[in-house]
Design brief:
The chain is α/β, with parallel strands linked by helices. It has 2 domains: 4-12 and 255-380, Aspartate Aminotransferase, domain 1 (Alpha-Beta Complex); 16-250, 3-Layer(aba) Sandwich (Aspartate Aminotransferase, domain 2). Helices cover 41% and strands 13% of the residues. The chain is built from 12 helices and 12 strands. Strands 2-8-7-6-5-3-4 form a 7-stranded mixed sheet, sandwiched between helices. The longest helix is centred in the C-terminal third of the chain and has 38 residues, at 238-275.
């Protein structure tokens, strides 16, 4: 059975135009970008073009883009690389960060840093009063994601960055889920560093970037031949980097049209969800346009995901990177959602290929699944 894919926050299919851009570098143009011969020079030119394309999407200069293997590496690179230059102080991260920010922050705490988790409100947005309270302590690093990977809630990054800079702290944002769905402007956000990933915007897995302030000094995580301005050694994955650049160029060209279309699809979806009795998390906050995170009282999220998969719909029980964890979503617990309801959470994330017909078909399938599950529960009682 062919599935309808509704899990684009986990990953996206490679766009045909991106694949076509990558193909030459998987076949004939296989040179090492550090080599001096013609094949190497062609690879270097391709990497340089991709750097320009990524930089253009977030409005920075190309040398500010440091290519890495993905979002996880970029987040670890910033947190550990910054800590390598700064004196141990406080690191403040929001209570709803992705594990690839939360866990390296915990690692710093084991090395003498003080870890402070910034509270969020019931809407999932960082509490600015708690930010100010946190910054009363000497702080070296602040990290706040631009859009939450589960709820889709957009965070007040610029407001937090302004406060962090006043406190002489380095400000970082994980913009992986926002890129390609809403406009992302590095300078306007006021951050020192930003994490990006290719496979969330119809590019390949295995390519990402840390965008850095020109004055920032970071200690490399990976030492070697001095690639990426000496900050990230290792032979460049030319094909994946080319795909990343092509995906960014494509995202920029359709940014004005994709948002309203996804908003329309999600509006139809959430109208149907509410009619079925769903609780929708973060719905009162600004969100990226493709994401809906919901639960039904008395229905386990994992069970619902499995049943929907059997019905031909690919959705997720929260964040893909932590889906093996049976505990309720840390994001929802930080939003003071009751643990029982949080265990029922399901995330649906739409993409450019989805249609109104697919949304309607999903709602019909969901209604049938819920009816069956509630019937089974009633029989068990």
């Amino acid at each position: 059975m062919e599935h309808i894919y509704l899990d684009h926050n986990a990953t996206t299919p490679i766009d045909d135009a991106v694949f076509e851009a990558m193909l030459p570098y998987l076949r004939g143009s296989y040179g090492n970008a550090s080599s001096r011969h013609e094949l190497g020079t062609a690879a270097r030119k391709a990497v340089n073009l991709a750097r320009e394309q990524v930089a253009a999407l977030v409005k920075v200069q190309p040398p500010q883009v440091i290519f890495v293997s993905g979002g996880t590496e970029a987040n670890n690179f910033f947190i550990k690389g910054a800590a390598g230059y700064l004196k141990a102080a406080q690191i403040a991260v929001s209570a709803v960060e992705h594990p690839c920010v939360a866990k390296p922050a915990q690692e710093l705490a084991r090395q003498g840093w003080k870890l402070r988790r910034i509270a969020v409100g019931a809407d999932g947005r960082a509490d600015l009063l708690d930010v100010e309270k946190a910054l009363e302590e000497p702080t070296g690093i602040v990290s706040l994601m631009l859009a939450n990977n589960e709820t889709g809630v957009i965070q007040p990054v610029a407001e937090v960055a302004e406060r962090a800079r006043r406190a002489k702290a380095w400000m970082h944002t994980d913009a992986v889920q926002a890129l390609g769905k809403v406009a992302v402007d590095f300078e306007a956000l006021g951050v020192h560093a930003m994490t990006l990933s290719a496979h969330k915007l119809y590019g390949p897995k295995g390519a990402g970037a840390l965008v850095v302030d020109k004055r920032l000094q970071l200690r490399p995580l990976i030492h070697g031949g001095g690639h990426e301005q000496g900050l990230r050694s290792g032979t460049e994955n030319v094909a994946a980097i080319v795909g990343f650049g092509a995906a960014c160029q494509l995202a920029g060209s359709r940014l004005e049209t994709i948002g309203p279309r996804l908003e329309q699809l999600r509006g139809r979806l959430e109208e149907g969800l509410r009619a079925l009795g769903a609780s929708i998390f973060g719905a009162r906050a600004p969100r990226i346009p493709n994401t809906s995170y919901f639960a039904f009282k008395g229905v386990e999220g994992e069970t619902l995901v499995i049943e929907l998969d059997r019905a031909g719909f690919a959705v997720a029980p929260g964040a893909a990177c932590s889906s093996a964890n049976p505990e309720p979503s840390a994001t929802l617990l930080a939003m003071n959602v009751e643990p029982e309801l949080a265990r029922g959470a399901v995330r649906l994330s739409l993409g450019i290929g989805n249609t109104l017909r697919e949304v309607d078909d999903f709602l019909l399938a969901l209604k049938a699944v819920l009816s069956r599950l509630k019937g089974l529960t009633a029989m068990a009682v």
